[in-house]
């Protein structure tokens, strides 16, 4: 629709600077404000009421631009829509989209802090500090400032490759931390697609598997010989303290120390004989079920519960659980300075390898070590719960039987391999 104004007329009006509104027709006006500023106005009626809609300043918005904007607004009024309300809605949608884009730009370092805040309540101070320190040293230099959706496999490799050969175990721990943090970011809608820090079927094709296996073998914890464990269990059974019960539970289940310290009653089904640990309580962040031998269930049935605490072994500190060194101090008090809590997992594994015919994968999975590769995992999805149950029952019977009586049981010869 041709209007009454021309580009030259508009320029003259703006130069004159006389306040007022000059119509172009069909509701479009050129306005000179009291302070001299020039702009475009569209006047229309909705429900019998006149409304004025600004279309922009002159000369940024030309006469041709203003006519196009006015025509679009008229189309909305023709179908009963209020162009001002529509514009406000569109602007709010744009602002919300911008807010979402900004929210997605949370840097990886902040995401790491968020993850630790969400999951670190059950961690010891030492573990929390070490967890963050590894990221600060090895991950943050390459990805700390990047939002999750910009982190690629190349960024992950940039963090891991410099330390993969000589600090393989640390590198793999950092990789696992990065995977957890990026998984959490995906759950928050901050990224999509495959996790670039995933090992199986991804980084295992880019980083040496041999180095990872060697690093795992290099980690040794001072352990008690499996033949000596029954004698220790007999001593512990004579001590009526929470630390003694925790030590016996640690040895009976092959669990890690922190799993015992932060164990809650809600995780145990004594009737079914299963201890169900949620993913956030496991080192590899995968939920895991531990079968409980009858001796374990009986031990826990006799353990008193403290009112107001969800934990098996409550404490007075800020964590609400037993002190991190309670079991260690007990063992040292019994003259076992030469063994560690973690070492009992090695005692169990040595016993299982020497004295039972249980397959290697069952023995490893009893310690929550799933070393099956991706191909094996595709064909073998079982967690071997019942096979592990039989193995752990045999272990429990062995270590709770007086040493002198440990000769033969269930087809296995106690005290030496058969």
Structural notes for this entry:
This protein is an alpha+beta fold and 418 residues long. It has three domains: 7-103, Double Stranded RNA Binding Domain; 108-218, DNA polymerase, domain 1 (Orthogonal Bundle); 226-413, hpI Integrase, Chain A (Orthogonal Bundle). It is 49% helix and 10% strand. The protein has 17 helices and nine strands. The strands form three sheets. A four-stranded antiparallel beta sheet has the order 1-2-3-4. The chain has a three-stranded antiparallel beta sheet with strand order 5-6-7. α4 (108-119) packs across α7 (168-187). The protein is elongated, with a radius of gyration of 35 Å. The model is unreliable at 372-381 and 408-418 (pLDDT under 50).
Radius of gyration: 35 Å
Classify the secondary structure makeup into a structural class: alpha+beta
Distance between the termini: 101 Å
Overall CATH architecture of the largest domain: Orthogonal Bundle
Instruction: Return residue spans where pLDDT drops below 50 for at least 5 consecutive residues.
Output: 372-381, 408-418
Average pLDDT, rounded to a whole number, is 86
Question: The CATH topology of the largest domain is what?
Answer: hpI Integrase, Chain A
Number of separate strands: 9
Order of helices and strands: HEEEEHHHHHHHHHHEEEHHHHHHEE
> At the first level of CATH, what is the class of the largest domain?
Mainly Alpha
Reported for the largest beta sheet, the result is: 4 strands, antiparallel
Query: Which percent bin holds the helix content?
Result: 40-55%
Strand order, largest beta sheet: 1-2-3-4
The backbone outline, from C-alpha atoms, is elongated
């Amino acid at each position: 629709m041709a209007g009454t104004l021309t580009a030259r007329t508009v320029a003259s009006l703006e130069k004159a600077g006389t306040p007022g509104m000059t119509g172009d027709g069909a509701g479009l006006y050129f306005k000179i404000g009291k302070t001299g500023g020039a702009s475009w106005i569209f006047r229309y009626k909705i429900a019998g009421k006149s409304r004025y809609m600004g279309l922009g300043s002159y000369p940024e918005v030309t006469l041709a631009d203003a006519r196009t904007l006015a025509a679009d607004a008229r189309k909305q009024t023709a179908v009963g829509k209020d162009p001002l309300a529509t514009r406000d809605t569109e602007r709010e949608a744009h602002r919300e989209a911008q807010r979402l884009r900004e929210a997605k730009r949370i840097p990886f370092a902040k995401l790491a802090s968020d993850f630790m805040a969400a999951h670190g309540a059950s961690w010891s101070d030492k573990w929390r500090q070490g967890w963050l320190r590894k990221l600060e040293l090895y991950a943050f230099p390459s990805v700390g400032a990047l939002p999750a959706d910009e982190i690629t496999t190349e960024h992950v490799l940039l963090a891991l490759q410099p330390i993969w050969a000589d600090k393989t175990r640390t590198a793999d721990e950092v990789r696992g931390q990065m995977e957890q943090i990026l998984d959490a970011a995906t759950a928050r809608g901050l990224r999509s697609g495959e996790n670039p820090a995933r090992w199986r079927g991804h980084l295992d094709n880019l980083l040496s598997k041999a180095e990872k296996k060697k690093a795992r073998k290099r980690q040794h914890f001072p352990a008690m010989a499996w033949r000596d464990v029954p004698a220790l269990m007999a001593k512990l059974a004579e001590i009526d303290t929470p630390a003694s019960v925790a030590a016996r539970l640690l040895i009976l289940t092959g669990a890690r120390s922190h799993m015992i310290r932060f164990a809650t009653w809600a995780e145990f089904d004594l009737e079914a004989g299963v201890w169900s640990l949620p993913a956030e309580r496991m080192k590899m962040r995968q939920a895991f079920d531990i079968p409980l031998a009858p001796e374990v269930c009986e031990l826990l049935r006799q353990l008193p519960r403290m009112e107001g605490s969800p934990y098996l072994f409550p404490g007075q500190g800020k964590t609400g659980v037993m002190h991190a060194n309670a079991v260690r101090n007990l063992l040292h008090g019994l003259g076992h300075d030469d063994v560690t809590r973690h070492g009992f997992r090695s005692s169990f594994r040595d016993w299982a390898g020497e004295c039972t015919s249980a397959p290697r994968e069952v023995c490893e999975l009893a310690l929550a070590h799933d070393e099956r590769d991706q191909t094996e995992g595709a064909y073998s999805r079982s967690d071997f719960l019942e096979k592990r149950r039989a193995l752990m029952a045999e272990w429990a019977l062995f270590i709770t039987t007086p040493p002198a009586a440990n000769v033969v049981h269930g087809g296995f010869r106690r005290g030496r391999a058969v």
